[in-house]
Amino acid sequence: PKGPLNWAALDSANTACATGTRQSPIDMVDGVFEILQGSDVELTVNDMPDGAEFENLGTTVEVVTQGGTLTANGKTFELQQFHFHLPSEHLDNGTSQAMEMHMVFQSAQQEIAVIGVYINIADQAAAAAAKRSRILGRQDPGASSGAPTTLLETVFSVVDQIATPGTRVKTPPLVMSEVVNILKANAFQIYSGSLTTPPCSEGVNWHVSTARLFVSPQTFTKARDVIGFNSRFPQNTPGQPNILMISALSSAAAAVQAAVNQVA
């Protein structure tokens, strides 16, 4: 994926993208979300000791998972996959982050829940400290110190092998507990939104984490060179008119005014 989707050329099957009033992503500012503590969420994700399938879908790169559940507010969702957007799709109080990981869950009733996690670039000092800790056999300080997140470093270690859309590779073994522990130690900003790619279906249960994951500068470059730009532009606050509809109406009004001016 080397360029953004052509949102202006959507067909009738994807009308929600242009008309829906609860579209994602959004700017995560006070008043648009509720807070749910990570400790109040039941989240489990199976480790993948034999690795996992990692595929370039042409729109993103996706890891197919091997079991996991999210239970919140009495509903249970099964983990299907996680994938990445560059830069972040959601804004953090007006600020874009380097990347965003989406963990996609589905319930028995076909409802969708997504955990969104911002990914930033680790500073060189933190990356060096983490590397020394691993060499010395100490516990990795993890994302709390801004050091690279082991899961992300492992996944993206092979991202250059799927540079062409449609290709796939097996990752090294994936230990998911690091990320699960980080998510549960923080909070989720929850709101009802949509898929961020066509058909932009609404009713998606979004859980945008207050946590941060990190990648080294070198890893970010590898991921960027494969993923490119694949993020949808921020949408209006949930409940407000769709920004594509507003744009279309504004264009139509301008065209009418231009015609009136020509007649005059």
Topology:
Layout: H1 16-19, E1 27-28, E2 34-37, E3 42-45, E4 53-56, E5 61-64, E6 68-72, E7 75-85, E8 91-92, E9 99-106, E10 112-121, H2 124-135, H3 150-156, E11 168-170, H4 177-184, E12 187-194, E13 202-215, H5 217-227, H6 243-263
Parallel strand pairs: 1-8, 10-13
Antiparallel strand pairs: 2-12, 3-6, 4-5, 4-11, 5-7, 6-7, 7-9, 9-10, 12-13
What class do helices, strands and sheet pairing give?
Answer: alpha+beta
N-to-C CA distance: 48 Å
Shape: globular
Low-confidence stretches: 136-144
Order of helices and strands: HEEEEEEEEEEHHEHEEHH
* Main sheet record: 11 strands, mixed
Strand proportion: 25-35%
Determine Rg (CA atoms, Å). 20 Å
Q: Give a count of the beta strands, DSSP E runs of length 2 or more.
A: 13
What's the helical proportion of residues? 10-25%
Number of helices: 6
For this entry, what is the oligomeric state of its chains? single chain
Report the average pLDDT across residues: 87
